[in-house]
């Protein structure tokens, strides 16, 4: 019986014309091809960051982004609506006219629940009184800007990897990489992004990344005369923003979007979106 | 093996296609892409090295005596550069390049002190007409400064 089976296998082998010699030969050929293919692959994998380097690299000199994690606090009860923050931001970052990386909104609410909201020129030139006849019972200013979300809808939709989150918690846009498709502008629920008409790329608040990495404060925070804007580093134990986040009743804009914003607000009303 | 030649030809073509694909892909992907994540790693450093325009108030005190008066007055929280201009306009690498602009218009003062319902109640605010007897638009340049010292206002 055993011998019969053996002969049968040999017979079928002969039909396929694949003997042991042929099999080894083909295997060698295949191995050679696979070797060539794998020889090319490492170029790709090292670039995609799959191969982890031994030492964690950090960009820039004299600054370690692993040691920082930033947060921003806006106290709307203190804001006087002077618009100095908007002016400072525009001058510091050379924001084109008519576009704003940060802006100040004015809310006036009447007893009947009518809401008047405006932001003339983003608040850059300050505010004039609104039309007479609107009797507001509560009124306040709300400075707005990029919320630097942890769960960013904007950088998730970027098709070319031009928008990204840094390790210290800032969302940035690579101008050289951006193709100006505008998906991110649509994706942002806070309307914080715009298409720069000069470079034709997406543009937004960077928390003045060139300043904060040198130990300075963002231009808007420095310009605020009443301390309505505060910038903090959550990895520092004596940080003011960290203390306020831990002890006060804070809020974020559009928490239902689950974007985990890192711009925290004190004293925002329900009208504010 | 009757069709060895065909196999070889197909394998060669596939190999050529793969080489072309990967080399073209390598050309399109920037050098530092993927260094830290799914983005061009060099951009982080580019963003860090953008020029700084606004300096601190201490920089003004190096040359201007009025900075000391300002530092002890009620306007100490107002940055010099808020009412004037960013330091980069005035000084570049320690050399003065241009005079700082001086805005004497009441509009600048009223930016913060115009009476608005949205402002905190305890913040000093005026209605120009009640305060000066003139409409805001008719106030001449320097009208506020006739009575108030802008760097350290006492009233």
Tell me what you see in this structure:
The complex is a heterodimer of chains A (273) and B (155). Chain A is 29% helix and 18% strand. Chain A is of the alpha+beta class and 273 residues long. Chain A has a single domain (42-273), classed as Alpha-Beta Plaits (2-Layer Sandwich), CATH 3.30.70. Chain A has a 3-stranded mixed β-sheet with strand order 9-1-10. In chain A, a hairpin with a 5-residue loop joins strand 5 (163-165) and strand 6. In chain A, 36% of the residues are buried. The model of chain A is unreliable at 42-51 (pLDDT under 50). Chain B is mainly α and 155 residues long. Chain B has helices at residues 4-28, 42-48, 57-61, 66-72, 80-83, 87-90, 106-113, 128-132, and strands at 91-92, 95-96. In chain B, strands 1-2 form a two-stranded antiparallel sheet. Chain B starts with a helix and ends in a 23-residue tail after the last helix. The mean pLDDT of chain B is 93. At the A-B interface, helix 2, helix 3, strand 2, strand 4 and strand 5 of A face helix 1, helix 2 and helix 7 of B.
Main features:
heterodimer, A: about 270 residues, alpha+beta, Alpha-Beta Plaits, three-stranded mixed sheet, three-stranded antiparallel sheet, 8 helices, 10 strands, elongated, B: about 160 residues, mainly alpha, 2 strands, about 40% helix
